[in-house]
From TrEMBL, chain A:
Compartments where located: Cell membrane
Membrane topology qualifier: Multi-pass membrane protein
Keyword Membrane attributed: yes
Xref: InterPro entries: K_chnl_dom, NAD(P)-bd_dom_sf, RCK_C, RCK_N, Trk_Ktr_HKT_K-transport
Domain annotation RCK C-terminal: ranges: 457-540
UniProt source species: Accumulibacter regalis
A single Gene Ontology CC term: plasma membrane
Molecular function in Gene Ontology: monoatomic cation transmembrane transporter activity
Protein known as: TrkA-N domain protein
Automatic annotation (TrEMBL), chain B:
Species this chain originates from: Accumulibacter regalis
Protein name, as recorded: Uncharacterized protein
Keyword set, alphabetical order: Membrane, Transmembrane, Transmembrane helix
Superkingdom, taxonomy of origin: Bacteria
Parts of the chain that traverse the membrane: 27-45, 57-75, 82-105, 117-141
Pfam families: DUF6394 (PF19931)
Length: 577, 148
């Protein structure tokens, strides 16, 4: 990249350099042809090339030592006047060209791109490429940064890049201002880098996300690819070529809403476990079962109707377009007015979804409906994060924010892949069992969303435990991973959620479960508890303490104390003899 | 190097017309390369130790034209462009060395254009001539390779 900057500069400097060479040559040549004069006024032969070049060199750079080696004749002075002006023009032209080149946007872009590529190349730690740093991308970047995962961002809009640079990230975020749909930009962002772990296609343009997913799949098949999508046909297209995860926020939210109506405790669990860690636990709102009204039959409205209908919820749709083929009861009209709402039976319905793609309309629908029926459970679709203030002021029972949903899903996929497996298993649980787990989590972690993490008992992630299990065939119970390494009688605020062994799942494993090498575990806990557990997994001395309650000495101390014990034993034997 | 440019220009043109369309940049480029070689040749030709056969103004002209040719070759990343540039740099180096030998003999030691000095100046510029010939050969090769 550096060389291309160099070549670009050289190319641009061609004309000024040639002008300079010609001016120098003409000035020097002139001086070697014009006769001089000596002190007596007698003509002398012209300057030699050497003297002429010397004179031009110091005159052209405006150093100006005077008339050397002898005072000039008038003819020489005339020529020198011309050559001084020529050389000033030549130098100004060169310097202006150089400055213009440095200031030129294209040149700066080349410089920036070069620096970006170099820094990506030097990245030594695992990182994710986020394509599109809009609302969603920024949320994910922030959360990943908090988890200590590096992020490389590719964003088309320059303003967003500037915003990104102003953000307070703990690690430097590498941002490239380019179109992510073009494969060469992805390559520059480190698609083939060996530390690259995955690609997140988070632009608000489905076709761009599709392009990113295909490019990543073809160029680096080993990467984890997560794509955001709004249209079902593009979703199907992405799944067909093996994108690992496709997050359709409309579908996802509608599915959650339907599940929440059917089993509120399951949804509460999802809320608790997939929230952004460390944030306050959201207030609990259980959507009631009964008749629902959906205002707006766009992509989101359709997804809601499809998912709710599957669970046998009675539905009425309000949409101004009379030609819609709606499978359920359809009222033609605007949801923002009271009459169509009454016509749709809002007075008797239990819930309402304001699903249009206009935030103002959605709020208006929600307020009007509440006036008609004050007990209504209102779900509002929020299209833009910028309107957060309005939605906070309104305080709906449920607010559907696409960027939040996508960010939550992506984070869960990246930071703890076991979580989606666990949540899938929980779907089959009875309400009572889910409620019990919700109670335990709320009891353990108070008002904060817990951190969710996965542990694999292998030599890389848990060296101490792995060594003890494999080399010394010791028995370790799961409970020992829940003890405080500073005081082993104290339990850590950690909840084991899932144990995966040989692809078999054990939900909520108890403390007596014996661990085996290769086990995968999913925990929920506080950030401090995660760090403490990590210490136990990594450090042999800490592990021994947690298991036995004894501080095993270090290697050197152990050797010494062993020797002294042996020595005293020998002494004792002698004494007895 | 210029062949790339010429090629992109030529693609759009109708085959019969394009031969009429001359690329001015290409003319200038070829002109300076050939002129550098011819001036160099003009200075070198003659008895190697006879100062009468080697005029210093010709050396000056050769240096200036060579420098311009070098600058014209700047900023081309192709393989042939790189070789072009390096031959020019070699020629510049040899010619400047020749000029330095002349200046030292003339002004520093005061020896003037003796037979030894003339020989040394001319042989240095003969080396530059070789580099210039390579440059011309490259130019011809590039032109021949250019299929339209």
């Amino acid at each position: 990249m550096n060389s291309s900057v160099f070549f670009l500069a050289l190319r641009r400097m061609r004309a000024p350099l040639i002008v300079l060479i010609v001016i120098y040559a003409v000035s020097t040549l002139g001086l070697t042809l014009i006769a001089g004069v000596d002190a007596q006024g007698q003509p002398t032969p012209p300057m030699s090339f050497f003297h002429a070049f010397y004179f031009v060199s110091y005159t052209a750079t405006t150093i100006g030592f005077g008339e050397l080696p002898n005072a000039f004749s008038d003819a020489q002075r005339m020529w020198v006047t011309v050559s001084i002006y020529l050389s000033v023009v030549g130098w100004s032209y060169s310097i202006i060209s150089l400055l213009a080149l440095v200031q030129e946007k294209g040149f700066q872009q080349v410089l920036l791109t070069g620096r970006f590529a170099r820094r990506v190349k030097l990245l030594g730690e695992p990182f994710y490429i986020i394509c599109g740093c809009g609302e969603t991308g920024l949320l994910i970047a922030r959360a990943l940064d908090r988890e200590g995962i590096r992020v490389v961002a590719v964003e088309r809009n320059e303003l967003r890049i500037q915003e990104l640079e102003l953000e307070d990230f703990s690690a430097d975020i590498l941002a490239l201002c380019a179109d992510a749909a073009q494969p060469q930009h992805l390559l520059m962002a480190g698609l083939k880098h060996r530390s690259c772990r995955g690609v997140l296609a988070m632009t608000d343009d489905d076709s761009a996300n599709l392009a990113v997913a295909i490019a990543s799949r073809l160029i680096s098949p080993r990467l984890r690819i997560v794509a955001r999508v709004a249209s079902p046909s593009i979703e199907a297209n992405m799944m067909s070529f093996g994108t690992h995860y496709v997050v359709n926020h409309f579908e996802k939210f509608a599915d959650y809403l339907a599940q929440a109506i059917q089993s509120p405790n399951w949804y509460r669990l999802v809320d608790l476990l997939t929230g952004l860690p460390g944030q306050e636990i959201p207030e609990r709102h259980d959507p009631p079962a009964g008749d629902w009204v959906v205002c707006g039959y766009g992509r989101f409205g359709q997804a809601v109707v499809r998912n709710l209908a599957r669970h046998g919820v009675g539905l009425t749709v309000i949409d101004p377009d009379p030609n819609l083929s709606v499978g359920v009861h359809h009222i033609v009209g605007q949801g923002t007015e009271a009459a169509p709402l009454r016509q749709a039976g809002v007075e008797t319905a239990v819930g309402l979804v304001a699903a249009s793609d206009n935030d103002t309309n959605n709020l208006s629908i929600a307020i009007t409906a509440k006036e008609v029926n004050a007990d209504l459970f209102v779900v509002v679709r929020q299209n833009r994060v910028a309107n957060q203030v309005l939605f906070d002021a309104y305080d709906a029972d449920f607010t559907m924010v696409p960027s939040r949903i996508v960010a939550r899903e992506c984070l869960a996929l990246i930071t703890s892949p076991l979580l989606s497996r666990f949540l899938h298993l929980v779907r089959a649980w009875s309400e009572a069992r889910a409620a019990a787990l919700v109670g335990r989590i709320e009891g353990l972690f108070g008002q904060r969303v817990p951190v969710i993490w996965g542990v694999r008992l292998n030599a890389a992630d848990a060296p101490a435990v792995h060594r003890l299990l494999v080399m010394e065939e010791a028995k370790i119970a799961l409970g020992s991973l829940r003890r405080d390494p500073a005081a082993r009688q104290e339990p850590l605020p950690v909840l084991p959620l899932l144990l995966v062994r040989d692809d078999r799942d054990e939900e909520l494993p108890d403390d007596e479960t014996l661990l085996e090498a290769g086990d995968e575990l999913l925990f929920a806990g506080t950030r401090a508890a995660k760090a403490a557990q990590n210490l136990t997994l990594d450090n042999r001395t800490v592990l021994d303490y947690v298991l036995t309650g004894e501080d095993t000495p270090g290697w050197l101390w152990g050797l010494l104390s062993c020797n002294s014990k042996a020595a005293s034993r020998r002494l004792g034997v002698r004494r007895r003899v | 190097m210029l062949s790339n440019y010429a090629h992109t220009v030529g693609v759009a043109a109708v085959p019969g017309v394009e031969r009429v369309l001359m690329n001015l940049e290409k003319v200038v480029f070829g002109f300076f390369i050939v002129l550098a070689a011819t001036l160099n040749f003009g200075f070198v030709i003659g008895e190697i130790d006879n100062p009468m056969h080697h005029h210093i103004y010709e050396l000056f002209a050769a240096i200036v034209v060579n420098l311009i040719a070098t600058v014209l070759k700047f900023g081309d990343r192709t393989q042939i462009g790189a070789v072009h540039l390096s031959t020019s740099l070699v020629a510049d180096l040899q010619l400047v060395a020749a000029a330095c030998v002349w200046a030292i003999a003339f002004h520093v030691t005061g020896e003037g254009m003796s037979r030894e000095i003339t020989t040394s100046v001319v042989s240095l510029s003969a080396g530059a001539l070789l580099a210039n010939i390579v440059s011309v050969v490259l130019l011809i090769a590039e032109t021949v390779m250019l299929r339209r």
